[in-house]
């Protein structure tokens, strides 16, 4: 009871402190501080260059635009306000620039003050970079609440169908809720120490919620089995902690290691997911290993209470060996035709992956916001006027103003440059040349324009900034850091599988299957989001490409989660093999003991994470739906068919390792088994 009381107090504190987390997080965070575009921005700010931070679209007479400009101009830190007639008669743009010394979070706060000052005036839409930050923040907060409200009832129904008990079905949701509250609290604390991107909030929260439900599912399922064997009391709880508890602990380390690879990147958005992902993985495990056992100790045999008659199944049935049932029969079917099943399963994954050959990337801008948001309306108005490129030009900083005319002349001759404006001198001897592209801001032709400008010969230092340059630098940074990220993920996968099984071959096989799963996920995302399918159903507007950081996040997330489930299955197969069962029977028994549990865990995880696919931000849809689909694919086609097929084909080679590593595993390897006297050979849920 002490643990529960302390947990209750901590929950109240965490909820109070963490509820305001979104207000403390930074917008976007896709730039590399060491990149050329970031250095150019720093030089421009230092020399007093004013960006167009806010744009108000005004439908009405000129007096209305002048009135709006007056309201905007009275706000603190607003340096300049211009009224620019729009091509469409009867409307205009009010363009404002903030103090160069303001950072993105301060710009967001200024934009919020301006929107509040303008009130509910009809005929205006507030957009531009700074308001898009504020509107993105509000959208993400609303999406978070909606996703949780959508997921909770559905998760309860699914858990009830699995456990056949209201009490048992409620426990994973309680642990999941505690994990979400703890996640918000942790992110709030982190925001005081290091910059955290607001775009990471939903994904990190979704991971924490999903992992907590997964871990508690394993724990509750095992506890019910141990109750049937030991009866009420500490022995059942102790056996649960020594088996499922050990697996949960190791699982959290596996997922955390994969997500930690994102810490390699200098972009705030990516390392925010890395930091948050590592912490919430460990937090979800901590709640499952500390709070949940206390709840189970209090519940005891009442964990099976409130079971509807039509759903009842005696807990003792869960503890009986399973030599029949769908998962055992499926494994035996696969073992009769392993080659055919392996080829067919791999072919399905390859076919799903085929669209990924046309994978294209784009960046985040106001077009990702809901259609009714002010920033989106301004974006579409500028696009309709043909002014979008002019509002987001390529900005060339020239350190010595005397060299700027030459740069402008050369820029005007570069293919892709529609206009090269005359130089504007800055306060400390520098100058700016703005170049407007004749192609979409994030299109290939605009990227080539940036590269050409950076190659322009000059005696002065020349730095290129602007949204297109930032996108070019982002992609270059990701390519530069990808080898190290891949190395971390690959090594963590092989080490995780080796520690649980003692096999190097199984680790390599896990890598191959994870890459097949990842390729299939990419293919489906390209087919749906890049090609603009299911727009009405999923409520999004296709951009003709995927957000550029999505593949990296999915690489880390899908690999970590797939390895997690792989380790759980392979550990049970090894346990059966160590008991003396032949290889084929050990695989079938491992599949039978874990098939229903892994599939149930995958479904619950997919629902809890996939619920964030209701987000209005297309990038969050891509991330969460991609992870949910990858987990479901891994738990079905890969675990049910490809794993047993390949293990049957490899026979004894599955367990091969060099002798030094075999000796190392004997000393440091892990296992879910307790010991020879306590081992329960039927410790997983039966197949159905």
From TrEMBL:
Annotated protein name in UniProt: MMPL family transporter
Bilayer topology: Multi-pass membrane protein
Keywords: Cell membrane, Membrane, Transmembrane, Transmembrane helix
GO cellular component, as recorded: plasma membrane
Regions that span the bilayer: 144-163, 170-190, 196-218, 239-263, 269-299, 337-357, 481-499, 511-530, 550-571, 597-617
Keyword Cell membrane: yes
One Pfam family matching this protein: MMPL
Subcellular location: Cell membrane
Primary location class: membrane
Gene3D superfamilies on file: Multidrug efflux transporter AcrB transmembrane domain (1.20.1640.10)
Positions of the Membrane transport protein MMPL domain: 91-340, 444-659
Family stated for the protein in its record: Belongs to the resistance-nodulation-cell division (RND) (TC 2.A.6) family. MmpL subfamily.
